[in-house]
Prior knowledge:
The structure holds two protein chains of two kinds. By secondary structure, chain A is of the alpha/beta class. Chain A has seven helices and ten strands. Chain A starts with a strand and ends in an 11-residue tail after the last strand. Chain B folds into two domains: about 5-50 and about 305-405 and about 420-479, no CATH class; about 55-135 and about 170-300, no CATH class. At the A-B interface, helix 2 and helix 3 of A face helix 1 and helix 11 of B. Bound molecules: adenosine-5'-diphosphate and magnesium ion. Adenosine-5'-diphosphate binds near residues 13, 42, 45 and 46 of chain A.
Amino acid sequence: MIEVKDLVRQFKSGDRTIKPVNGVSFELEKGTLASIVGKSGSGKSTLLSLLGALDKPTSGDVVVDGVSLAGLPAGKLTEYRRRDIGFVFQQFNLIPNLSAVDNVMLPMEFAGMRKAARLERARSLLEQVQLDPEKQSRRINKLSGGEQQRVAIARALANEPKLILADEPTGNLDEQTGEHIIELLSSLSRDHNTTILVVTHDRSLAQKTERRFRLQQGKLSEETVRPRVAAGA
Amino acid sequence: MSVLARSVGNAFRNKIRTAAVVAVLAVAIGLALAMLVANQAVGGKVQELNASVGTVLTVNPAGAQGFDGGGEPLTTAQTATAAAVPNVVSVVGTKALRLETATAASASTTGTTAQQAGPGGGPGGGTSVTTNLQAAIDAGTLGNRNNTSGSTGSGNTGTGNTGTAPTFSLPITATGIGAEVDTAGKALNITSGTGLGDYTVASTKALVGTTLATKNNLKAGSTFTIAGKTFTVAGIFDAGTTFGNNAVYTTLAEAQALAATPGELSSMVVTVNSMANVDAAKTALQTALGSSKADVTQGQRNLDTAVSSLDSVKNISLVAFIAALGTAGLIILLIMVMLVRERRREIGVLKAIGARNRTIGLQFVLEALVLVALGSVVGAAIASVASGGIASALISSNSSTAATSQRGPGGGGFGGAGLPGGGGPFGGASQLLTSVTASASPGVIAAGVAAVFGVAVVGALVPALLTARIRPIEVLRGE
Ligand SMILES: Nc1ncnc2c1ncn2[C@@H]1O[C@H](COP(=O)(O)OP(=O)(O)O)[C@@H](O)[C@H]1O
Ligand SMILES: [Mg+2]
């Protein structure tokens, strides 16, 4: 259960202050697949970075399963990112000189998991995101965009996080590949009962999520809640 | 995949750049190591030098040195005066004899066995006696030239010797010594046989230089004659120079008896307890003996220039070592700062997926150490090849003046001021300069590499700490 309470993030650009996130509040139940749409520059990435503790809000708070991020020291925020959050980025952000398996194993290494266990779990996760088995040991920069994003999703799942934050995960992919990725996220949210928040400016992709938010002028508004649509249906 | 494996992988991410960095590091590290090796070698030499001859003073009769000059001889009684001077540890008297070889003696008119050196205030301290030994040095150009001038001075003119010198052969130096040291105060290096035992009593035992022994087929136990008296070779010594090895040592009392000048000394070798007291002791000694009677010289005076030039080489090499070490550290620092800046976003990724600051910092330090390790391997190879050359280049460029000015008359002539034994203070300086051998010992290289790693860790720590300041939000840069 994620509770977002009156989040504000302001930036100073020159002598002007901008507030891409200006009083955002919402709650997400465990296992929900939600989306945020909004124009480019509307503050979607800023909001996501606050939820994932990549950045600190100017004011407001994020409470995850009863724990408030506002009161946590840097070390605990690192632990929060490691254990509770999985990130998927538009630009994949994998480590280019490592293999697919090694990339997926990284968060587990940081969490102190033993090597054999890491390897086994990484292989199983890469299987779940449907990466060809022979590509598991391939270096990241020898994989296509869609394949890289699958690896990134597997990495996000590595430590069984409570919340996966995906920032335009299909932005660098062609339409068909993008659809596959969304389907993958959707099925993962169902199978793992993981809360997933996807930022996209593609409305048709947003249509496939249970809850849809729109970020505009720093405020979040929600479209009517409707029952979940089966992925790909 | 461990942190170390990742660091090694990262170090080779850009192979061309890695090769360039390693090459530059290797030059700096190689230079640092070579300088350290040179420093150690020169330091060792200076120490050895100070320990052996640095504290030795030589006392000659006022107005005479070796076989030249005039004045009154030194006496055994004066050794007691010298020994009473503060800081003086030991006083060894010497009595020099010039051994005329049989051919040279027959060419002279008188033919007497114990021929007092020429009239007219010629050689003061030296006394000529005959021997059946053959000199180990050929006369050569220097010898003949020296003989010509020498014979004019010693009153041999008119014997038909002038102009034709085919029969001329060099004399051999025999020195009576009061202890087992050469005339420069250095302990004799006896290569076979034994010493003479008690050096203060007369004995027909003698020590013979290596080349002289070879020339005359002498071994420990062989016999030869001086002034018709039979001597037994007790041991063979190596003075390290051709001139020094064309010599014979007997006990002091024996030499005095041979010269029929009991109680007379050619010189005294005075050892002072420490380098720091040498100057004071020299002044005190001069006062105690009286400047009209004795000349006190620092046997090591000529070596002084050599020691001080060696000392400056030592300092230069130390400064160069530190500078090269600092350069290696700086190279690592700059490279790592560059890498951190370049991988800003990647560091953001690592933080976003939960890496601790210390994990990332460690990864960068290890990456730096991988580069340093490679640089050290190549650098050590460079150093072991180059250190000898660098050391001798440093020494010759730094002391060429000192070395050339001291080469002096070492060619075997006795017309000059060459003292017998040990090459004398003149031959010594240039000799010691060439004898500094800088060999890259594994211990020194290991110590140097350890210093390099120490500096590298410091150099890499700064950028590693910089990574801690990079915020995880950097992951979104450029998106
Ligand atoms: N670190 C920053 N400093 C100043 N302005 C920023 C910073 N990060 C984001 N912004 C601004 O905040 C606004 C929202 O950016 P962002 O959240 O990236 O938008 P979106 O992801 O919706 O395209 C933009 O106008 C952007 O320029
Ligand atoms: Mg964005």
